[in-house]
Amino acid sequence: GAVEVINARETAPRVFPHNLLSGCGVPFPIVLLCSSGARWIGVPGELRGYEEAHKRHGRLPWKALFEPTIKLLSEPLVISPVLGKILHHPSFSEPGKRLCPLLCDGGRFLEPGKSFQWPALQRTLRAVAEHGAAAFYEGDIGRALVEDISKAGSSLSLEDLRAYKAEVSSALNITLNNHTKVFAPGPPLGGAVLMFILKVLEEYKFNKASLATPEEKVETYHYIAEALKFGNMLRPHMSDPAFSEAQVPVGTLLSDQFAESARQRIDARGDHQLSHYSLLESLHKEQHRSLGTSHISVLAADGSAVSATSTINYP
């Protein structure tokens, strides 16, 4: 069957400060290191993306998709150990104080095991379930969002929300070992980098014996780790083709020659300098990082498959 990509990444508001990068002190791809504050809030697209997916492939009524979560929100939610660690982490605790109306008791974050309720989220999901994504992008929810974040300095507007559209495109694809087809989204999403990593590893011909002994297992994991390092250095170069020329054309990234150039640099060492893993002329002195990304993959009984990646950077 066909494989398609629905790109519902955030976009920049139509009006935004053009000097946002001036205070970063590092090259553009490392912008996440300094991109905090309301001025960096983009136009959220995820809900429009799910709406597009439902229009194209949905079988259940739209409303039915929200009912389990709405029901869950009728009961108290419990602070998990992981959430507790995040809330009390030094880098989060101060900016996270904005969440105190929801997650605090007497000005202090709730401890793991304590419960809280989230009626506002339940009301929001009910509105979206009843009226579709328009309840968010064109209704009272969007207006309340714009009013709230504008007080903190955001330039996001109702016009930005109303104008947002998810984009549908064909997936990239490669063939590994002459028989395995791999599909992934193209830039600005990271699928091409994943394909590059797989092409680097392809020639090692991993099989069951590659994990048979401790020595072979260490060697196999070493090759995988080294390939991931090369891929990580390419991630910041996945610019959005709608707004800028690709720093690394996809054809180059997925070529046999490019994968071979990485393999030639992989040796028994794992302690190389960061520059060793850059296959490009421009080197980065800082480490690219992303916070708050989650991913889910679902296989259905009829053979269809869906994967979704979502990121909410914080604070």
UniProtKB/TrEMBL annotation:
Superkingdom of origin organism: Eukaryota
GO cellular component, one term: plasma membrane
Record's keyword annotation contains Repeat: no
Name of the featured protein: GGT5 hydrolase
Single GO biological process annotation from the record: inflammatory response
Lineage of source species: Eukaryota, Metazoa, Chordata, Craniata, Vertebrata
Active-site residues from the entry: 293
Organism: Pheucticus melanocephalus (Black-headed grosbeak)
InterPro entries: GGT_lsub, GGT_peptidase, Ntn_hydrolases_N
Keywords carried by this UniProt record: Hydrolase
Stored PANTHER family: GAMMA GLUTAMYL TRANSPEPTIDASE, GLUTATHIONE HYDROLASE 5 PROENZYME
A GO term, aspect molecular function: leukotriene-C(4) hydrolase
